[in-house]
Amino acid sequence: MKKYHNAWAIVVLLGLLGWGIFDAEYLNRQEPTASSGEQGNGQIGIEKGNTAPDFELQQIGGGTVKLSDLRGKKVILNLWATWCPPCRAEMPDMQRYYEENKEKGVVIIGVNLTDTESSPEAVADFVKLYGITFPILLDPDKEVANVYKAISIPTSYIIDSNGVVQNKYIGPMDEETMENMLSAIE
After folding, report:
1. Neighbours of 185 (CB within 10 A)
2. DSSP single-letter state for residue 171
């Protein structure tokens, strides 16, 4: 009888693993579509076509950033942590992409999952070490992480200039991926 319980547990675990891989691959392969001036479907949410849920968080170095204040710009909303190897891997590409495109109306916002960090100072040290100049926001109460369902990180949302979610990407992004996603939207 115990033998069957172990086999059943393995089958369930493999099923969950398979679902997770399929879900992540399916989401990452979705092609972004241009918003063509549309204002979205009028609903607030994190699905494609929804108006991105608004938030305001403290920025490292002082001040706050409110997502809705960035209307008129294309936004990459990246949820990450310093201890996450894929997050660390994508940071140089994000920084280069930001520097090359900030004058073209592109903003990258890094929302740090601060409750998982050893301290806010560790985040500030990471930002300095990697030379990050795009806004890094602290999310100590998981407010944004919960709303944007950051179950695995890094998770990024591509938001068009009208504030509408156009795509979600799970995993580390490189410059080519960012360019492909942002060039297809308004």
Report:
1. 19
2. S
